[in-house]
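Chapter summary example: a protein plus fe (ii) ion.
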Amino acid sequence: MKKTLFCVLVVMLMVCCAQADGVRLVEASDMHLLSRQLVEDENTLLRILRGADGKVTHYTPEICRAFVDKMLEEKPDAVLLSGDLTLNGSHESHRELIDILTPLKAAGIPVLVIPGNHDETGLSYRFTLEGAVPIEGMDEQEFKAAYADFGYNDARSRDESTFSYMYEVTPQVWVLAVDVNSVTPWGSVPTDTLAWIEGQLQAAQQAGAQVIGMTHQNLMVHFSMFTFGYQLNNARQLQELYDKYGVHLNLSGHLHLQHIAENGGVTEITTSALAVWPQHYGVITVEDGVAAYQAVPLDVAAWAEKEGITDHNLLDFSDYSARFFDDTTTGKQADRMQAIEANEEIKARMLDFVRIFNRSQFAGYLVEPIDMEELALWEEHMPSAFFTYYMSMFPKDGATDFRQATVRLN
Ligand SMILES: [Fe+2]
Ligand SMILES: [Fe+2]
């Protein structure tokens, strides 16, 4: 009897320990929420969106609501939002997002945000019959006040000059949130912030905690054509601190593409924009000093059905969002193709190639079989087009899957 009781206690202890060690984080990026209060004329907005990168901006309030609903169900240990929270930093969009996020806090799920380059420029837009009309947007101080309860106020330490902070998710897993967008010119970690980061990494080392970094812009160059404005201006200095104190994982966004890069002992994962098909968020499970990352597509349609929404686009959202993405990709190219001398069959093949190619790049995996030989059509007929150069930069086999990674944190 005593032996049985002992075994039960050992099993209970093992289960307890396993739960204590397992930490589940969710990262989402670039939701670019636009409040409908700013959309007086939807056609104006849609016309502008057709020339953009495929963000389903007109449905971002629903995407964010579906995401929060999913998080309330999943109950991760923390939700990380790595910037570009709004389309262009309007007070209305920020207020709406804060309203949407508040139930997470009420449920005891910490939400850790940092600003992106679109969140606090002081300039925003209203979409009217006359076009996009400039209006005042949030500035750095207003952002800090509005989002103080989303990470910054509850942090174990806060940087004075930016919205950077160190947050203890558990005694073993800390998140270093690094903001480079509250400084002018934006894009660099200030010198005093670097000194504060070093102090924090020393403290983590002494406490035996594993640190996961979070930035909006990228620590690394993911593609050689996306460098200036994409990578942190002084990324080398932050990477040196990561190397010195054993930070092995950085989570970021900004690119809008799902991607993974490595430099030395650091892995950087850019989670693709929540506003863009396939509406990815990243789930990071930390167990026994190893972080397992998996990008997951948000099921907006399931949320819409649960809410009793009758909008057909929302009820079939994955398909709608994919088609919207395709239309922005091919629409722009079809306009440019009018000037080239090629028959309609060749043009159709070129458009189909670019459609699959661009979907795959944003989603981080090959979404359908693609014949890379078709790139030759672009090189022949549109040699100086942006897309020809863009496509020539990427791996030809398209075989790599950037939706998952395993990173040892110590
Ligand atoms: Fe963005
Ligand atoms: Fe950005």
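Key point: The first helix runs from residue 2 to 21.
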